[in-house]
## 1
Amino acid sequence: MGKNERTARVILEARGVRKTFPSRSGGEIVALENVDLSIPEGLTTLISGRSGAGKSTLLALLAGLDHPTSGSITFDGNALEKLDNSELARLRREKLGLVFQNFQLLPSWTAAENVEAVLMHSGIDRPARMARVEKILAELGLSGRFDNLPGELSVGQQQRVALARTLVNDPILILADEPTGSVDPQTAQEVIELLMERVRERGTTLLVATHGTFPETLADRQFKLAEGKIDSLCKES
Ligand SMILES: Nc1ncnc2c1ncn2[C@@H]1O[C@H](COP(=O)(O)OP(=O)(O)OP(=O)(O)O)[C@@H](O)[C@H]1O
Ligand SMILES: [Mg+2]
């Protein structure tokens, strides 16, 4: 075992998580079944699985954006099912960084506004907010693009705005859903370097869901998700 895995605190845990969606025919689609997962602090964990395996569904539950049909999720000592929506929003705002599969930038907001949104309601005043937004956008090579709408940016630039939004609140945990799936190989490499730099420099815990575009060699641990079930722990450092 490497990187203090034996002693690392579990920062995120799923126990017996099941998630179903109603199907149009009146039945149910089982997206996740009996998922148990323990994510140690400071490590990079990969969840791999083919399209439809349930990766995005799982990440949405882990982020408290949706609720499991049954089972429980604990993040940083908080049982998510015990929190109301405003408490969940606060937890995300203070401790979580999300990278969505399709970026999910708000199309009518500028790059700076998309990033600033994370810091709203955080008690940080506007000048201090803008200073942080501008610093992170500049760090990600987006100086001069603060006032552009997402539609005026290249896909790679949009992904960097999304990453700025992910990192601006100094999250202790980053949940990244296929962060390198929709960009060219060079941009993908940049995204990977930016994420791994965070992990190295700040000890941030990283959980990446991917169907194969994120290099397995960068992960300390790797799980396989197949048809909604955690199939195996295929790598333990
Ligand atoms: N809102 C929803 N309503 C109904 N079914 C859903 C919903 N969201 C997800 N599903 C179903 O749950 C299953 C898992 O979907 P999910 O998006 O989690 O897969 P994924 O592993 O992220 O796939 P991909 O690699 O293509 O992104 C799929 O069968 C999908 O159709
Ligand atoms: Mg997905």
Note: The chain is about 30% helix and 30% strand.
## 2
Amino acid sequence: MTAYETVIGLEVHCELATASKMFCGCPNEFGDEPNTNVCAVCLGLPGSLPVLNAMAVEYALRVADALNLRVPERSVFSRKNYFYPDMPKNYQTSQYDEPITIDGWLEIDGVRVGITRAHLEEDTGKSQHVGVGGRIHDAEFSLVDYNRAGVPLLEIVSEPDIRSAEQAKRYVEELRATLLAVGVSDVKMEEGSLRIDANVSVRTPGSPEFGTRAEIKNLNSLRSLLRAIEYESDRQWSLTQAGEKVVQETRHWDEESGRTISGRSKEEAHDYRYFPEPDLVPVEPTQEMRERVRASMPELPAAQRARYIEQWGIGAEDARVLVDVPGLAAYAERAVAALPGDSGGSAKDVVNWVRQEVLAYINETGLSPAVLAPEMLAELVALVAAGTISRQQAKDVLAESLRDEKWPRTIVEERGIAQVSDEGAIADVIDRVLAANPNVAEEYRAGDEAAKKKKWGFLMGQVMRELKGRGNAQVINRILEQRVAGE
Ligand SMILES: [Zn+2]
């Protein structure tokens, strides 16, 4: 139970996966040799002129469609002026009062979180502080890599509609899945292609007014996001309870100490001296462009989950995992499609294997699910459904299949572990056993419960011995029932 309510708004910076940078032809590539993907434009050399990347505009329109955002007829770029060594132009080309998209929403577990805007801007370079702690104040010197300067970013700003750290995490998960589905970014938080700033304030539950907020910068994992919001809201509430004031400021999350640390006091927009970028024309997406984007939109995660629940009869949590783990849903779809129609195996069986065994393997090895061909998994599910192997045996077969990239049926044949499920073959054996023990069936029918049990056990044992222990117990039971009890 908490005595206060947390109010959260998130700013998510998403690096767009275009081939080239936002305003020049330099490659947009993560991890290249420092300062190799640079030119006069992204270094801000005098006389250079920017040209807008059309693909970045198209990506913004895709996100607009996915997040229910409106696209005004025109938007403009502005210069956001500030000095920092990782920004060679001394201003960031961004959008200010006329962004490319406004007024959208994203639904999280039945609740709509408003999205104020998503605007285009360029990324900055990257400073590396060389010294003991890797931080600026104890660094001996700093290095700057401008490869990232000018990489296209989409900044997605939410309304202060989020009410808990957990809900903030769910919002980012859903947003990340959506951005990945529409193909605009690889959304890798660990590589910085998705970065989050959280605006956090607290208030008495039910209060109509917002408290003073702090902006926590550059949260680079979902775990940091959760911990930072929890720490910061507790800190603010303790201050309020002690009669002190929360200061409006930027704070940094320190992963090691588990605390947020005061940064600079928060700038106001007028500190940046925004003005329209004179070297770029306004962006006016045509109707034709918008329609082309709309026609090429893929299925969104929410619709995808609903489809699996409906068509495959799986639970909501199963559907969520399939959609959230990159590549897993596509893998499951291919495995389901590869199931032989007459195998008796179901899509639900396939999903169970994918969620448990295949996912455990991915988590353990860090490999993509494609290591095990989906067709191989389908074959395994069919072998279990047909009674050729038990579920327990199938786990061993799968482990070997993953390790040696071998087809399950080949492993079953090599190991000689196939169960005999063929009804004709089992009936033949049962008839032979009954002929060799002519009195047993008679004694079974005449006996009491204990005697029945004993005779049944004897017959089962004889049949299993003939089948070298590999008979399918269910089938044997059924046929014995017809031959002995049913007469
Ligand atoms: Zn360049």
Note: The chain has three domains: 5-294, 299-415, 423-485.
## 3
Amino acid sequence: MKTEILFCCPKCGNKHVLNLDDEIDLTEDKSKLKSLLDDSYFSFSCESCAEQSVVEFPFIVKDDKANFLYKLNPNDEMLFLLKDNDEREIRVVKNLNELKEKIRIKYFRLNDHVVEYIKKLIKEDIEKNNNVNVEEIYFAKYEDEKLHFVLFDKENYLGVMTYSKSGYIKIFKELKEKIDKNLQIVNLSTIDYLF
Ligand SMILES: [Zn+2]
């Protein structure tokens, strides 16, 4: 489905109507995956001043073989996505960084509850031992038997932290009975129930 987005350029204020796909199905065709993960799918240049902007809009990405449906819901609409017989992993995220993170977690075959749990451990450890507030932390990739996370405070990139795959598996085994598979919003603020 196409959706019309009224986009107001943050630099010159000119308004443009963008006509965009509001759903990408990756089941058979992964050709758009790269443009999702590097933001180019969401990047537009202003017709008046050529300023490049990333535009977030209500959007669905799904893959029936990997069995997920992720909904980007930047406007915080009330959503009732989950159906009783829906076996897919359904998630609602509030921004593009969270959407990309969910996609990476899924295609690296990790569990997002466990990843959020580890993010919380890392965040608390860093904040306790350094004089910083970790405002944002995202799973970036799995490489060399480690999960890699990128960290930001309010304004700055703080760096990368890694967590071993064996540590991940240990936590997964401890938590797997407690994981609530029907939770549609899985992030740092909803993960406390596992602690
Ligand atoms: Zn402009």
Note: The radius of gyration is 18 Å.
## 4
Amino acid sequence: MAKTGDGESLGTAEGAVMGRAAHALHAEDPVLDDHWAIHLLGEASRAQVTSPDYLALSIERAGFDASRILAIGVGALRYAEDEVERCVARGVGQYVILGAGFDTFALRRADLVDRLVVFEVDHPDVQALKRSRIEAAAETPASLPRFVPVDFETTTLEAGLSAAGFDPDREAIFSFMNTTPYLTEEAIEATLSEIARLAAPGSRIVLNYGAEVPLSAAQVEYLETLQSNVRASGEPWRSRFRPEAFEALLERVGFVLIEHATEADLFERYFAGRRDGFRPGVPGRLVTAEVAPRG
Ligand SMILES: C[S@@+](CC[C@H](N)C(=O)[O-])C[C@H]1O[C@@H](n2cnc3c(N)ncnc32)[C@H](O)[C@@H]1O
């Protein structure tokens, strides 16, 4: 169940946007320059993030260094954004962000407003909080996404997307970043299967998932700490996949795999050469896949 909150009882949507706001504010060369993120924070979160000691304080508060998982989150959104730009360049005009949380793409990408309609799918409570934060923001958004309230565990996508004006006959790009671990395998498969049936062939999806792969002792320890944190926050991780099982799932529901990248690929692409040590530190996989032609 998605949570909303501020300060002590943060939902994961707010936790993620806090990390992006801090990264955009304090990093020398941000992997994703999410300057809008700061406007979506509640007062207590904004006060924490603007402190120059944010990282040290958050390590002290949480008892572990969240920057290694934050780097996965930030890198994944940059990976998505790069694919969206490639799709827009070839004329794709619809972008559906699944598990959007406090994503800021629509709010900050003034350059794409005329070419791209953005749909955001998330739990209705998270969307309500986000809308109120946008209304109260100190900056005017470049555009507003079309909000599609959905609980992936209980609701299908099609009716909501259709009511929001999604055109199934035109190609679309979907992203599903930093969200699948919070969903059951059944909800993930049902959602991907629905997209493969609903979206025009050639439409693409970019997503990441928690990988069930051999781990070092340090990785095991880090992941255990992380899992007990997310469990305590009320949004436990519910799924992990072996990479070959995830590829089989994609094929089964009607996608053709384009790229299956590792956290090491993510490092090479976006983090190599950084001097601040910011880098992905947990195993994760990123996928680009395309809706297969219907036979
Ligand atoms: C860690 S946040 C990631 C948000 C955003 N994609 C990002 O990278 O910042 C996970 C998101 O999944 C959403 N979520 C989790 N379970 C959900 C469900 N059953 N239905 C709809 N959304 C859900 C949460 O509300 C939250 O916004």
Note: The mean pLDDT is 93.
